[in-house]
Design goal:
Helices cover 35% and strands 23% of the residues of chain A. Chain A is of the alpha/beta class and 266 residues long. Chain A has two domains: 39-80 and 164-260, 3-Layer(aba) Sandwich (Rossmann fold); 92-161. In chain A, the strands form two sheets. Chain A has a six-stranded mixed beta sheet, sandwiched between helices. A three-stranded antiparallel beta sheet of chain A has the order 2-1-4, covered by helices on one side. In chain A, helix 2 packs parallel to helix 4 and helix 3 packs across helix 4. The radius of gyration of chain A is 18 Å and the shape is globular. The N and C termini of chain A lie far apart (42 Å). With 289 residues, chain B is an all-alpha fold. In chain B, 82% of the residues lie in helices and 0% in strands. Chain B has helices at 4-12, 15-57, 68-77, 79-113, 115-130, 133-143, 147-172, 176-184, 189-227, 236-245, 249-278. The chains are: A alpha/beta (266), B mainly alpha (289). Chains A and B meet through helix 2 of A and helix 8 and helix 9 of B. The complex binds adenosine-5'-diphosphate and magnesium ion. Magnesium ion (MG) binds next to helix 1 of chain A. Magnesium ion binds at residues 57-58, 167 of chain A.
């Protein structure tokens, strides 16, 4: 879009960041949340995990985040995982209500022992990036749902992580706010070159946002197909209304429907 | 549905009706703001007036039931003795409360750090809490030489449990996603405690503090009744006992009045502390428009 947008190479030329090899996750009760999931995440990818609820999308993210260990299989970071390598956005904004917006965004740095003064510029920069520079000193309760989510995104971005995980971040927002945040997320991605894994159960959201869609099925949770969305970024209203978009959405939707048991398809 | 909805909405949205509604709401709020202060004062004044009349109309002698005027008179007359005792009671109450805060919060933090510590020690805390203080106090005064320390210990036993229980609950109720975030960013125990668990526990702790403030006073008074012995360093409870033996009923009332006032002031102060600590962010302290 602008001169300082990062250039992201085409899909097959990107360097790997992380790989999951035949990962299984079985919970204590015997629930197979994830079966034989393999995935190589490359630098600059925007990957969507798409599937019905209970298909193991959150489980996959929690495994990647290191919040739990695979029962079988391995997850490896290219060159090892550093402390600032990961940013996470949950379905809820997950802000500390007792801290201001700026102090919330400071958290990842604060846990590294960096004082607020030394990272103030960076915090102001990401807040401007998500359009909240005027709200640095507000408390979360003073913000709308969409704005809180932006703070959460700013916090995930602030350390310039190699990978950002987003678990249905906009699912609780209204359609208009969600659309706006989707547009802004793509702009952000263009400007930062971030690598994103985005969990959603919306076909349209996944086709609009991502260049790789992993369609998942439940019982047991598994990936059944990867769909490449080979449309260039930046994407906007033109992409949303193009025949290619409609075609891929159709294809994705059909794949998703084919995974549901006959009783569930209606 | 879709046909009737627009019409009904436009009807309720008509200007004047909406304004009238709003106005009555505002009036109600104004009345409520005044009534909040006026009503309790009025009721209290009425009760005192009725007490006074009861004594006058029935010619009740002051050694059976003194009137409010007589009680005030005694309070002023005996202020030398009573104020000394008030200071003693206040001192024990506040020290017990301070130790209860340190002990309660300290133990709660320990419990939050170690499940084993919680399993080992929480039964003792519960036993101390459920056993009535009047039953423990005599033993305490047998084993502990210093009256002051004995009183302090009694008041502490009563006051510390609500702080411990509430703070423990608060430390555990930190948001799950925030806890995950702490793990993702590899926060250590100390950071997790300081940046997440303690702030989450603050509203709970302050709730416990409000209860503990009153209980510390009750503990201090009850313990003194049990201790019984008087002397120079005796508090208000002993003054009541002493006045009772001498059938000095007005003085009993005066001391009682001081104890009640102390309790009310402690409650007011802890409530104010709680409000100021939470006013920026916690639901309990927020004004709704
Ligand atoms: N901590 C857990 N213990 C036991 N079962 C779990 C746990 N977390 C998730 N599950 C189960 O694993 C499956 C996948 O869950 P999840 O990954 O949350 O699905 P999704 O995010 O796609 O809705 C579900 O059947 C869920 O009930
Ligand atoms: Mg989920």
């Amino acid at each position: 879009m602008t001169a300082h947008d990062r250039i992201i190479p085409p899909l097959h030329q990107r360097k790997p960041v992380l790989s999951m090899q035949a990962v299984d996750k079985t919970f204590n009760g015997g629930v197979v949340a994830l079966r034989r999931m393999s995935l190589t995440v490359n630098e600059g990818d925007f990957i969507s995990l798409l599937g019905p609820s209970g298909c193991g999308k959150s489980t996959a993210l929690r495994l990647i985040a290191g919040l739990m260990r695979p029962t079988v299989g391995r997850i490896t970071w290219e060159g090892g995982r550093g402390t600032d390598d990961l940013g996470v956005v949950f379905q809820e904004p997950t802000l500390m209500p007792w801290s201001t917006v700026a102090k919330n965004v400071w958290l990842p740095f604060r846990l590294r022992g960096k004082s607020f003064a030394t990272v103030r510029d960076r915090i102001e920069e990401v807040l401007a990036l998500v359009g909240l520079d005027k709200f640095a000193n507000s408390y979360p309760r003073e913000l709308s749902g969409g704005m809180k989510m932006r703070v959460s995104i700013a916090r995930a971005l602030v350390t310039n992580p190699r990978l950002i995980l987003m678990d249905e971040p906009f699912a609780a927002l209204d359609e208009i706010t969600r659309q706006k945040l989707n547009d802004d997320l793509l702009n952000l991605k263009a400007r930062t070159g971030a690598t994103v894994i985005f969990v959603t159960h919306s076909v349209f959201e996944s086709v609009f946002l991502s260049d790789r869609i992993l369609v998942m099925a439940a019982r047991p949770g598994r990936v059944i197909r990867e769909i490449a969305v080979d449309a260039p970024y930046p994407r906007g209203i033109a992409w949303r209304t193009s025949p290619d978009y409609a075609r891929i959405a159709r294809e994705t939707s059909d794949t998703l429907m084919s995974t549901l048991a006959p009783g569930e398809s209606h | 549905m879709s046909v009737t909805e627009p019409t009904s909405r436009s009807e309720t949205g008509v200007g004047p009706m909406f304004d009238a509604e709003e106005e009555s709401l505002a009036r109600k709020q104004r009345v409520e703001a005044v009534a909040k202060w006026l009503l309790p004062i009025a009721v209290l004044s009425l009760a005192i007036w009725y007490w006074d009349r009861l004594v006058v109309w029935n010619d009740i002698p002051h050694y059976i039931l003194p009137g409010p005027g007589r009680v005030m008179q005694t309070l002023i007359q005996d202020w030398g003795t009573l104020s000394q005792s008030l200071l003693v009671t206040l001192q024990i109450t506040l020290m017990a409360l301070a130790v209860a805060i340190i002990g309660g919060v300290g133990l709660a933090v320990l419990f939050a750090q170690s499940r084993l510590a919680e399993m080992s020690f929480s039964p003792f805390a519960v036993i101390l809490q459920v056993t009535p203080i009047v039953a423990i106090a005599p033993l305490i005064f047998i084993y502990i030489e210093s009256r002051m320390v004995g009183l302090l210990l009694c008041a502490w036993i009563v006051a510390f449990f609500p702080i411990l229980a509430n703070t423990t609950l608060g430390l555990k109720s930190a948001d799950h996603n925030l806890r995950d975030l702490m793990l993702i960013y590899k926060a250590n125990r100390w950071q997790r405690l300081r940046y997440l668990q303690l702030p989450s526990a603050l509203p709970y702790f302050l709730g416990g503090l409000r209860i503990a403030g009153g209980l510390a006073l009750i503990g201090a008074v009850v313990a003194e009744y049990v201790a019984g012995t008087g002397g120079i360093g005796s508090g208000l409870a002993f003054r009541i006992l002493e006045a009772g033996y001498r059938l000095n009923i007005p003085r009993m009332f005066a001391a009682l009045l001081l104890i009640a006032l102390t309790g009310v002031i402690i409650f007011a102060i802890t409530t104010a502390i709680s409000h100021f600590a939470l006013r920026k962010w916690h639901e309990s302290a927020l004004k709704r428009e």
